[in-house]
Each structure stands twice: as structure tokens, then as C-alpha cells.
Amino acid sequence: MSQHNTLVDVKNLHVHFPVFGGVFSKKVASVKAVDGVSFSIGKNETVGMVGESGCGKTTVGRAMINILYHVAPDVEISGNINYRFENSIVDFASLHPKKMQQYRSKVQMIFQDPYASLNPRMTVAQIISEPLQIHKNMSSKDMEDRVAWLLDKVGLRLEQAKRFPHEFSGGQRQRIGIARTLATNPELIICDEPVSALDVSIQAQVINLMMDLQDEFNLSYLFIAHDLSVVEHISDKIIVMYLGNIVEMGDSSEVYHHPRHPYSRSLLSAVPLPDPTRKNKTRVVLQGDIPTPMNKPSGCAFRTRCPIAKPECAGDIPSLVDTGSEHWVACPVVREAN
Ligand SMILES: Nc1ncnc2c1ncn2[C@@H]1O[C@H](COP(=O)(O)OP(=O)(O)OP(=O)(O)O)[C@@H](O)[C@H]1O
Ligand code: SF4
Ligand SMILES: [Mg+2]
């Protein structure tokens, strides 16, 4: 793997969605979707992000491409999302969406459902060339050549350019989405569960394609998934999120094979693991529902479901601490048990 110079540094990111109520539509509460998250992604690096539904993964991704104001105009964002582009540092957390135009091409997002993100009335050629028309002054011949080249890069045939999205399978649609994303030469692609809706055999093909493209184009990925085994395969680093916070972060194989936070351990014991050394590990079955990010438990947010919670876990919010070799864990109880 190549060198990991930092491409983006996320520092203490908070994203809260205000909830309005009453006759005067006053703010009555906040959904703390992201509640103090810090991590970085290097050039040509893949960071995998996992956690249960509603823990804030998509919100982190949307913040990183600065589209939250379009989704929720009242959103409250604080912290920093510092990108290092060529010689300039740009903070997307405070950058007005109107000023995004010049950076839009550098950071792109692909989604779980490629069908929903592809315009059904446009041909594949139109879909892939659309971002080129916005960003560059290209002749139609150059545009055609570029579309042909992109189709080839994602393993589609030139004659498929005239077809419409409904004529393709899920895996092929995801390839179209990837080609469209690549059209602008991005540096980072936020991949929001890009293979979750695909059959397992197709998942592997799309993931392999993404890994090949990463090497060829020196791309960085934030790869969001529910399935830890997918993330372990593709990622250099893994982040485990719970209710808007990072609870564990570190080298991919370290977090996967030696998870330390009780939540990561429960996530890992819930998936079938091909590794024979893990066969006899006790399965941790989580009790209780995930609390709402509008009313998080005090102290450690995981304490209402944690199998080893202690009374003191209701006190301070545990900070994420490096337990050695960049393996960060937000649980003083497991750290002390070392
Ligand atoms: N536009 C919005 N307005 C209000 N609340 C929102 C908005 N978007 C997300 N949320 C809330 O923020 C929290 C985090 O949501 P998010 O979609 O980021 O989670 P996720 O980890 O991506 O979940 P999933 O795995 O289901 O995709 C949830 O409680 C969600 O209801
Ligand atoms: S701080 Fe306490 S409740 Fe939270 S994960 Fe650690 S032991 Fe469990
Ligand atoms: Mg999501």
C-alpha cells in the first residue's frame, strides 16, 4: 500500500438536527447524529466505517461532501473537516455550500441503491458525461472518448452507452455510478454501503473493481458498511461508531481480529467469521434497543446494552484513547483490565 499522507482530517465533528415543536415552532430538542468525531483519511487509503442503523455513518459522509444543508437547512455543524488539496487546506465544515463548486469534483459519494441515484430518463452516456459538462469545457468528441474510456475502466462495453439504467443489473448499475463518479477525477469517494443491496458474488466483483480503481487513480475511500467482513477486506483502517461517537478505531486487521470495545466485540460475534482461530469465541448477544440520539444515556452511551457495564460508566463520557500502536478504544473498563 502506498504512503498515507493525510487527505482529510476530521476534528471533533458535531452534527445536530434540531427538532422543532409547539405553537411557535421552537427548538425543543436535538438529534445528536454525530457527537464529537475525529479521524483522518490518508491519500490512497481506505477507511471502513461500521455501526448499527442510525449511528451517524451517512451523516458523517454527507458532512464530508458538504451536502447536509441541502438535506436539512437547519442543521447545526461544528468542528473541522480539513481537506488538503494541492497546497491549500479547505475546511468543509465551515465552507458555505455556494463556495463548494470548485471542490465538488474532488469529493464524490456513491450510494447503496445505484438505481435511485441514476436518472431513469438518461442514457448511460448522458449519465456519465453529465458531471463533465458541469465541470469542464470539453468538445463533444473528447466527451465521447472520455465516456468510452470510463466505461472500459468499470468493465462495461461501449455499446451499452446508449441504454437506460433499467436495462442493467444491480451490479452493472453500481458500475455506472462508479464511472460517473470517476469522471471528475475525485480524490475521495464516500462509499455509502455501495454493495449492501447486491448478491454476495456480485459484491465481490464490485469491491475488487473498486480496489483496482483505487490503485490506478490513487483514490481514497470512506467505505461505510454494516458487514464487518466486507470492511476488513477492503480497509486499511476501521472505525466503529455507536450513537454518534467512535468507540473503536485502528488498523483493519487489528480491530477485526482483536476488537477491544464491548460494542465492537458484539458486532463481530454477530457475523460468521471464516477465521478458524475465532471459532470458539463466546457470542455476545446485545440486550435492549439502541437508545435514540435525541436522548442519549449519560456517560458511556453504550452502557444500557453493555454486558460489562459498571455503575461508574454513567459518569463521564469515555474518551477515545490510544491503547498502543494506534488502536483507539473508548472504554476505560477494558483499558484498565489490560
Ligand atoms: N435530515 C435529517 N433530519 C433529522 N434527523 C436526521 C436526518 N438525517 C439523519 N437523521 C438522524 O440522525 C441519526 C443518524 O442517521 P444516519 O442516517 O447518519 O445513520 P446511519 O448510521 O447512516 O444509519 P443506516 O445504517 O440506517 O444508514 C438518526 O437518528 C437519523 O434519524
Ligand atoms: S465504558 Fe462501561 S458501559 Fe461503556 S463500553 Fe466500557 S464497560 Fe461498557
Ligand atoms: Mg446510512
Topology:
Blueprint: E1 6-21, E2 26-42, E3 46-50, H1 57-64, H2 68-71, E4 76-85, E5 88-91, E6 107-110, H3 114-117, H4 124-135, H5 140-153, H6 170-182, E7 188-192, H7 200-217, E8 220-224, H8 228-234, E9 237-242, E10 245-251, H9 252-257, H10 262-269, E11 321-322, E12 328-329, H11 332-336
Parallel strand pairs: 3-8, 3-9, 6-7, 7-8
Antiparallel strand pairs: 1-2, 1-4, 4-5, 9-10, 10-12, 11-12
Describe this structure in words.
With 338 residues, the protein is of the alpha/beta class. The chain has a single domain, classed as Rossmann fold (3-Layer(aba) Sandwich), CATH 3.40.50. Helices cover 29% and strands 25% of the residues. It contains eleven helices and twelve strands. The strands form two sheets. It has an eight-stranded mixed sheet, with helices on both faces. A four-stranded antiparallel sheet has the order 2-1-4-5. β4 and β5 form a beta hairpin. α4 runs parallel beside α6 and α6 packs parallel to α7. The chain starts with 5 loop residues before the first strand and ends with a helix. About 1% of the residues have low confidence. Iron/sulfur cluster binds next to α11.
